[in-house]
Amino acid sequence: MYYRFGTTTSINCGNAVSANTRHIYDVSDNVYLDGTLIKTTTNTYTYNSSQSNILIFKAARSNYYSDYKLHDFKLYDGDTLVRHLLPCTYLGEPGMWDTVENKFYRNQGTG
Amino acid sequence: MALQVWLPLNGTLENKGLSNVTVTNSGATVDNNGKIGKCYNFGNGNASSKGISINNNFVNIGTNRSICAWVRPKGNHYHYSGAIVSSGNWNNSSWTFCLKSDNTGFTGFDRGYKNYYSENIPINTWTHLCVTVEGNVTKFYKNGVYLGMQSRGTTFSSDAANTMIGRETYASGYFSFNGDINDVRIYDHCLSPKEVKEISKGLILHYKLDGNDIGITIPRNGGLIPDGVELYDYIEGNGTSTYLNTGINPRVKPRVVADLTFVNATDKDYWGNSAITGSAYYANFYQY
């Protein structure tokens, strides 16, 4: 599992997981897979106003996409929960509903 | 397609629609007992000229269109009708969304008061009214329930100039709606019956359909899940073109907790490396 926040180097957690198995990733400085510490890093995150928002299913500066099934997504800024996204449809349109801000997030790509 | 003009009228004149319009109050008063919080009151059945103007040309909304609002008439309306929204010169080129003067019918996108749909609108009660147009078919809804249709021509005029809420736009005489109005919306497309029903529930505030917004606010109404939202077990990207934008560039430090199921090993990382089949799957929680 790869991730990249801020300007740090991409992190490859490298742990094998089987297709069609459900897992919980907890990713920050350290990475936990289903509650087990699998990666320790010494990332230094520095806010930069010009960098992208965090995207799901896509890297911000490329056209590489992912196709996993996402059941639940929480995003913290420091210790503050800023997004809690749940899969949903809103008036028939697929997307995710944010319980923090009561917002519906829709597909930003095509298809 | 978009919600071009959206004035909740809940104590402010803010337009949440797509069109960049200038909204000005000409005597309407704020009432604390609105359908959605506060509302605006336009008169008491006398020859009042209270209204709220939309002075800029808001949009050429084309043939297909919809208009809706919450209304609470307080009695009969002065003169010809109770105008909810009126556009153009009443006596010449114009359209109106209004109640019959005795509250026994309503019409929309109609010249003056020619084609009322007969339906009693109760006084001192909030009622949601909607009129949609698709081609030459005009449909009427009350409280989200489809009432019936009329077949008309498709020529409309005065979409823009001299548009008023709560008052006729007759050039030499102004007669206001006797009562209160909330949540006026003008769409540049024909709403479906389902959409009209959802809006009439008073729970869902609609959204711009321009595709640029990444988050649509859906107020809760006491319950955990807003009306219109149906939860599912998962959402799945298609691996080639779909993605979500969280709208967050974290200030302190991001942390993601994701419950997910990998589907296959065809994903790639930022650098275009293929996933390592059998050893890792790429989730792409990327900010870069």
Structure description:
- The complex is a heterodimer of chains A (111) and B (288).
- Chain A contains no helices and 10 strands.
- Chain A is mostly beta strands and 111 residues long.
- In chain A, the strands form 3 sheets. Chain A has a 4-stranded antiparallel β-sheet, with no helix packed on it. In chain A, strands 3-4-5 form a 3-stranded antiparallel β-sheet, with no helix packed on it. In chain A, strands 1-2 form a two-stranded antiparallel ribbon.
- In chain A, strand 1 (2-4) and strand 2 form a beta hairpin.
- The radius of gyration of chain A is 15 Å and the shape is globular.
- Chain B has 288 residues and is mainly β.
- Helix content of chain B is 3%, strand content 36%.
- In chain B, strands 1, 3, 4, 6, 11, 12, 13 and 15 form an 8-stranded antiparallel β-sheet that branches. Chain B has a 7-stranded antiparallel β-sheet with strand order 2-5-14-7-8-9-10, with no helix packed on it.
- In chain B, strand 12 (137-142) and strand 13 (145-151) form a beta hairpin.
- Chain B is elongated, with a radius of gyration of 23 Å.
- Residues 203-212 and 268-282 of chain B have low confidence and may be disordered.
- Classes of the chains: A mainly beta (111), B mainly beta (288).
- Chains A and B meet through strand 1, strand 3, strand 6, strand 7 and strand 8 of A and helix 1, strand 16, strand 17, strand 18 and strand 19 of B.
Write the layout of secondary structure elements.
The complex is a heterodimer of chains A (111) and B (288).
Chain A lengths: L1 E3 L6 E2 L9 E6 L2 E4 L2 E5 L14 E2 L12 E9 L2 E11 L2 E6 L4 E4 L5
Antiparallel strand pairs in A: 1-2, 3-4, 4-5, 7-8, 8-9, 9-10
Chain B lengths: L2 E5 L15 E4 L2 E3 L7 E3 L9 E4 L10 E9 L7 E8 L5 E7 L4 E6 L6 E2 L8 E8 L2 E6 L2 E7 L11 E3 L13 E9 L5 H8 L14 E3 L11 E3 L3 E2 L7 E2 L8 E8 L23 E2 L2
Antiparallel strand pairs in B: 1-15, 2-5, 3-4, 4-15, 5-14, 6-11, 6-15, 7-8, 7-14, 8-9, 9-10, 11-12, 12-13
